[in-house]
Amino acid sequence: MTKKPLRIGGIEIGRGVTETINIPVARLYTHTEATLPVQVVSGKRSGPRLFVCAAVHGDEIVGVEIIRRLLRSKALRRLRGVLIAIPVVNVYGLLHHSRYLPDRRDLNRHFPGGMEGSLTSRLANLFMTEVVRHCTHGIDLHTGSNHRSNLPQLRVDFEESNVLDLALAFGAPVVLDSKPRPGSLRKAVSELGVPLLVYEAGEALRFSESAVRTGLRGILSVMRSIGMLPPARGKCPTCFQARSSTWVRAPISGILNTKTRLGSVVTKRSVLGAIADPFGENEVEVLSTGAGVVIGCLKLPLVHKGDALFHVASLDRSARKAFSEEDLGDFLDQDFQL
C-alpha cells in the first residue's frame, strides 16, 4: 500500500471521489486532440492501487466492455484503495479498428518507452509515468489476434509466486506459464516489482459474453484477494496450470474445416480439423502434436501452409481427466453474482 498523494494528469485525487481524466498524447493530423482516457475511483479508506487496462492493441475490445461493466459494479461502493481504469490505451488503433498505432508499431513491444522516440514509444512512456508508477498491482486485458479466438486464460511467470497467487484468485479456466517478452507491458511492469496479470479471452473486434463475464468476475475476485473489496462467499473456481503450450500449424494450404472447439481436451494425434483445396480433391487432417486443452483457435478458414491454427496448452494426465468440458461450459455460461 502507498500513502503518497495520487496525482494523474496534473490532477490530485482525494479519497472517496471519482475522477475522469483525459491525458493529452498527440493530436491527430486533423488538429483533433487525442488523449489517454483514465477514470480513477478512489475509496474512502486507504488500500492497494490497482490499474486495469484494455486495448493496448486497438482492435482488442473485449477488455473495453469488461472495464465498462467493472466501473458500473455496485461492489465498488465498498472500495478500499484506488482503482485506475484505462479502457482504451491505444486510442489511435481503436479509431481505425487496428492492432497498431499510426506508425505501424505494436505498442506492446515498446514499453517502457521514452519521450524522445516514436509516437508508440511516447505513448508507452506516458502510460508508465502517469499510471503504472502510481500502482501496486495491475491487470492487462487482451484477446486473440489476427482472426484467432482465445479460451479465457491468464499468462503469468510461474517463478513469480505473488503473481501466480493472484492468477489463482482470478479464477480463469487455464493459467499458462509464460515468460514476458522484451518490450511488453508485462515485462516493464515486472521490472518495477509490480505484479501484473495478463488476461486473454475472445477475439479481436468481437464481443464474447463468456469472455467478458469471466474477466469481470476475475478482476473483482483479485480485488477481494488483495483487500480492496470485502471477501466473497464460496471458493474460487479450479484453475488448471499449464507449464507449456504449442501451436499446431497447417500442413498444407487450403480451406480449414475445424473439428474441435475451445476448451476441448485432446490427446496426441487427435483430429483437430481438416484442410482441403477448393475442389475437394486433396484433404489432409490436422492432428494435435501433444496432449492438453485447446486454448486458442483460428476463426478464418482460409489458410496457408505453416499458419498457426490451434493453440494447445499441455496438461498432465490427471489434469486432463479433471478438466471437464461440461463443467467448463457451465462455468463460462453462468450468471455471476457480482
Topology diagram in text:
Blueprint (H helix, E strand, L loop, with lengths): L5 E3 L2 E3 L4 E7 L10 E8 L2 E10 L7 H11 L7 E7 L4 H5 L23 H12 L6 E8 L3 E9 L4 H10 L3 E4 L7 H6 L5 E8 L5 H17 L14 E3 L2 E5 L4 E5 L6 E2 L4 E6 L6 E5 L4 E7 L3 E2 L4 E7 L2 H6 L2 H9 L5
Helix pairs in contact: 1-6, 4-6
Low-confidence stretches: none
Q: Tell me the structural class.
A: alpha+beta
Terminal Cα span: 25 Å
Rg over CA atoms: 21 Å
* DSSP helix fraction: 10-25%
Distinct helical segment count: 8
Q: How much strand?
A: 25-35%
Backbone shape: globular
List the secondary-structure elements in sequence, H or E: EEEEEHEHHEEHEHEHEEEEEEEEEHH
The count of DSSP E runs of length 2 or more, i.e. the number of strands, is: 19
Q: Return the average pLDDT rounded to an integer.
A: 93
The biggest sheet amounts to: 13 strands, mixed
Describe the fold and architecture:
The chain has 8 helices and 19 strands. The longest helix has 17 residues. The chain starts with 5 loop residues before the first strand and ends in a 5-residue tail after the last helix. Helix 1 packs across helix 6 and helix 4 crosses helix 6. The strands form 3 sheets. Strands 3, 4, 5, 6, 7, 8, 9, 10, 11, 12, 14, 17 and 19 form a 13-stranded mixed beta sheet that branches. A 4-stranded antiparallel beta sheet has the order 16-15-13-18, with no helix packed on it. A two-stranded antiparallel sheet has the order 1-2. It is globular, with a radius of gyration of 21 Å. Strand 5, helix 1 and strand 6 form a beta-alpha-beta unit. The chain has 338 residues and is α+β, with helices and mostly antiparallel strands.
